[in-house]
Model the fold of this input.
Amino acid sequence: MRPAPKPAAVDCRPGFRGVIRASFGPDHVPAGCHTGELPHHDLRFDAADPNSLQDLRTALAHSRVGVRLVLAGPPADVHAAAAAAAECGLMDEEIILVREEVGTRTIYCGHCHTPTPTTQPPGAEVDCRGCGTTLSTTDHFSRRIGGYLGFSAYAEERP
Done:
């Protein structure tokens, strides 16, 4: 696998007001959003890892009120980046999510709060990578944590 090109987050000049388009995935396809007359700043990342999320936070820190953010890619990456943007103060109305319909989803264990990546659909069972509990996955999504809630699939059967 070839390394991702270095994102140009530092090129987002202080006071930037326009559209920041962040794309995630190996193809580095620009986030599909026509900005019209608004200036735009493109960021491309392999995945929403701590380094790429920090680069996104840096770009947002240089922006001004009125900036818009478009996030495109696999659901787990898009949601992690949206949670990071919310931490920076962006409101839901300022963020556009362009999720691929396939890809990894992040399930958060309601017991140990560990994120577990999965490609299983809602309603399927996955084992928590933190505490080993078999989790039933839901379609209940938390924007704050950037993932779906998982709960013990067999809680009623335990003594």
